[in-house]
Amino acid sequence: MNTLLDLLSQEAGKAFAEAGYDAALGRVTVSNRPDLCEYQCNGAMAGAKQYHKAPIQIAGEVAEKLSGSAYFSEVAAVAPGFLNLKVSEGALAEYLKEVAADEKFGTPLPEKPLKIILDYGGANVAKPLHVGHLRSAIIGEALKRMLRYAGHEVIGDVHLGDWGLQMGLVIAAIEEQQPELVYFDPGFTGTYPEEAPFTISDLEEIYPKASARSKEDADFKAKAMEATHQLQIGNPGYRALWDQMMKVSLKDLKKNYDSLNVTFDLWKGESSVQDRIPAMVQRLKDEGYAYLSDGALVVDVKEDTDTKEMPPCMILKSDGASLYNTTDLATMEERVELYHPDWMVYMTDKRQSLYFEQVFRCARKTGIVPGDTKLTFLGFGTMNGTDGKPFKTRDGGVMRLEMLIGDTRAEMLRKIREGRPVTEEEAQATADIVALAAIKYGDLSNQASKDYIFDIDRFTSFEGDTGPYILYTVVRIKSILAKYEENGGRIPARDALVPAVGEDEKKLQMVLSGFGAMMAGAAQELAPHKLCGYLYDLANAFNKFYHETPILAETDPVRREGLVALLVLARDVLETAVHALGFDAPSKM
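RESULT FIELD:
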């Protein structure tokens, strides 16, 4: 369906045409001076040069044509040539009835839905998830949901780090600790054990120690690199041990991602494309794209328009080993072959922007990715502590993700217990839901590319631009509706809306009418912070309306039913938007 701005623009466009001007000049936008008007049209300013007339003259002629329009209750031409507009309460209510009846609340669906692959998560096998993984998971999940809501087909891939040196480090460390294991017996021909010789806790202890040791012990690092090489060329014992690492790690990763309400359609990693790398590399050589430079195989990706140096994209190191570049290119090749995506979006730390520019250019130049497939790198900023430095534990270490979630939940539980009398079971369940909202909204309300401060006190507050405030607004509406039913009221259909009486009610209706256009735009721009901004505006509009408007005390039954229908629509839009961000609202708080 059309957005309200589309309808208002069409009406203004007709007036421009009737006055003898181009109808395209009638584009209406939300006013940047809400103290003066609700909407504005600057077409007269744009048309002044074209028609050799003063803009205020054009605006005056168009305003005259708009007098009596069913869409506008006020139209004013003001110097130097703006049209200040107020939508009529009747037209707004009729449009909102259409929004209420629409499955997507007025979100315009694409004529041709896109197939989109989102590469987010980026967890490493044999390592615990830490706070550095938070933003990718949260932003990626929100974008997946938003793009799906906007009508696109979206495939989310965790893209695990499961094939690099960290695997060799763990294998080498385990071999030193438990050399008697059959995985290290080159003559073993039997069936490898079903049970892993380690737990996830063991792996989380083994890797950091092995990594630190490799930086100081050259012999151990050489063993780890050889173990990595043996794994990659198919050493059966190492492959069997790697399988065990994958099984144990994936179980733990899925548990942690589940706690964030984050899911993936694909659980692929670097290992899934190893078999296609040799043929891809050979093609790049045969077709003249790849050449040797200081022993390494590279592809030039610089362009004539570059103003800064652009290093070549390395395909193989001088020892013939592959790199992240190689794996990412092979992954793109596989995705094109298997899924034929229209758009691939990659989410990592913004400091990797140069890397992705190189890989994207190489993929385009070599034909790995077709020219009509869009490639986007969405680099996100750092999550910092209240001291402005990257978030750490109290002793200065990198905080595990489950610790951050646990700390936020504990703070949320404390505030819920203090807020009102509540059973312990209810407090625990509510804390789970609201803590997740606090974490996710606290992250997503910031533009992805910017660093932000993780402030647990502010994020768990029930006041201000926070997740708990948004959820409290939803719960308040649910409470009013429950009271209405307890008093014998019947919840009406959402389209039982009536024209607004008063500015606060009209403001709420106007914010609700803008949901569809906002959602489509935020999804297309990959901008969850815009959805958060809308949610905050909607929550504020509702709460002001609630405090200024008697709802259940309204004596006119038709108007009372209309007000209740407005509450139902506000609740449903809020919950739809909240779900698109990756969290849900409780029944009580």
